[in-house]
């Protein structure tokens, strides 16, 4: 049976064995597949033209089967070196990615879908709905393009950009295999984090893949009722079901879990919320990552002030929970995830494009 990548003939989405089968069937010698794979995933070139040790006819065959990820906008923070990229796919869909510098290394935040259909109330990525899934090569292409453009080494990858990775499960899993393949970019699985709003069956599936990647759950509320008011996915899966899936994920991988918790003033930042959050996180020994909500003008949510956030953190710490507050990066270049794309698209519409 042909895989999706072979049907579409998207070479950058094929694992080495698939690429080998594909090229051999087309009449090329087996060793060409290793060369092509090396050009795509180690050299990370963006076109067949750059694959200098290949014969002309093979390059001509490859050219239309390599997807491009084209940069259309780049913003560089003068404060901390964060860079936000807007990329266009071959069909002109727009996606966002972010490059961030940390003490432990450089991290890239990739998008997994064009838009999102999860509908979280505080998130700009979902404002225009879901357009389509990204292919493995389009997710990888964001990292390769950023590496090419910045010339910086990339040691960490987080799947926390636009889209719900577990809603594009097969492509994301293939992407994770390619990203961490020792014959490819060979990024350590321990340096990769996938963030999900909590699509429970897919968390069980991911546990079975036996990856060593980190799982982050976007929790954001500690009762089902409150969670339902800000995250529609909570109508389908309860917090209890998420916790059970987390226990299974931990048992299978022994990777520490993270709960992301966007603090929204007056919504989920009370003393009771902190108490319950401590109990929930304690149960699965999860780290809590507090994110003062990035105001999205379309939604009207605001973050509590810094001292309030600190106090919330201290309450959790008193209960023995490890807590981090997400550093605000690139404050001078743009706001929340999804806003760059949302703005660009609306500007386009206003100009009648
Ligand atoms: N769909 C995935 C990953 C994308 S968003 C998920 O839900 O986890 C990455 C993280 O940023 C999620 O925790 C998301 O809830 C959070 N987020 C989105 N918009 C935000 C905003 N305006 N302020 C703070 N956090 C936000």
Mean pLDDT: 92
Q: How far apart, in Å, are the first and last alpha carbons?
A: 41 Å
Topology pattern, helix = H, strand = E: HHHHEEEEEEHEHEHEHHEHEHEH
What hetero molecules are in the model?
Answer: S-adenosyl-L-homocysteine
Could you give the order of strands across the largest sheet?
1-2-3-4-7-8-9-10-11-12
**Cα-atom Rg, whole angstroms?**
21 Å
Spans of at least 5 consecutive residues with low confidence: 349-353
Structural class: alpha/beta
Q: What composes the largest sheet?
A: 10 strands, mixed
So how many helices? 12
Shape, per Cα inertia axes: globular
Beta-strand proportion: 15-25%
Structure description:
The structure is a single chain. This protein is α/β, with parallel strands linked by helices and 353 residues long. Helices cover 37% and strands 18% of the residues. It contains twelve helices and twelve strands. The chain has helices spanning 4-8, 16-25, 30-41, 56-62, 136-150, 169-179, 200-208, 224-230, 239-253, 271-283, 306-318, 339-350; strands at residues 70-76, 83-88, 94-102, 105-109, 113-115, 130-133, 156-159, 192-196, 214-218, 258-263, 287-292, 323-325. It has a ten-stranded mixed β-sheet with strand order 1-2-3-4-7-8-9-10-11-12, sandwiched between helices. It has a two-stranded antiparallel ribbon with strand order 5-6. Helix 2 (16-25) crosses helix 3, helix 5 crosses helix 6 (169-179) and helix 10 packs across helix 11 (306-318). The longest helix is centred in the middle third of the chain and has 15 residues, at 136-150. The radius of gyration is 21 Å and the shape is globular. Bound molecules: S-adenosyl-L-homocysteine.
């Amino acid at each position: 049976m042909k895989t999706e990548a072979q049907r579409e003939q998207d070479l950058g989405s094929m694992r080495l064995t698939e690429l080998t089968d594909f090229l051999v069937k087309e009449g090329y010698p087996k060793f060409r597949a290793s060369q092509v794979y090396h050009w795509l995933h180690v050299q990370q070139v963006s076109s067949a033209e750059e694959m200098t040790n290949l014969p002309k006819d093979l390059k001509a065959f490859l050219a239309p089967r390599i997807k491009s990820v084209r940069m259309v906008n780049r913003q560089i923070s003068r404060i901390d070196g964060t860079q936000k990229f807007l990329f266009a796919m071959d069909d002109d869909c727009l996606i966002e990615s972010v490059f961030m510098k940390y003490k432990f290394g450089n991290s890239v935040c990739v998008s997994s879908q064009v838009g999102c259909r999860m509908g979280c109330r505080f998130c700009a990525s979902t404002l225009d709905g879901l357009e389509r899934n990204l292919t493995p090569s389009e997710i990888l292409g964001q990292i390769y393009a950023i590496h090419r453009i910045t010339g910086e080494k990339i040691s960490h990858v987080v799947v926390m950009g636009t889209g719900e990775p577990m809603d594009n499960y097969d492509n994301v899993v293939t992407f994770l295999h390619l990203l961490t393949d020792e014959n490819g970019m060979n990024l350590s699985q321990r340096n990769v984090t996938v963030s999900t709003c909590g699509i429970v069956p897919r968390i069980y599936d991911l546990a079975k893949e036996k990856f060593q990647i980190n799982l982050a759950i976007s929790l954001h509320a500690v009762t089902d009722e409150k969670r339902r008011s800000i995250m529609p996915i909570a109508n389908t899966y309860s917090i209890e079901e998420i916790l059970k899936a987390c226990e299974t994920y931990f048992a299978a991988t022994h990777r520490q879990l993270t709960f992301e918790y966007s603090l929204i003033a007056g919504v989920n930042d009370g003393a009771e919320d902190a108490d319950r959050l401590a109990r929930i996180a304690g149960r699965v020994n999860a780290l809590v990552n507090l994110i003062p909500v990035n105001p999205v003008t379309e939604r009207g949510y605001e973050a509590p002030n810094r001292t309030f956030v600190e106090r919330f953190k201290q309450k959790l710490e008193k209960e023995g929970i490890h807590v981090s507050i997400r550093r605000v990066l690139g404050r001078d270049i743009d706001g929340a995830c999804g806003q760059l794309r949302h703005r660009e698209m609306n500007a386009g519409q206003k100009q009648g494009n």
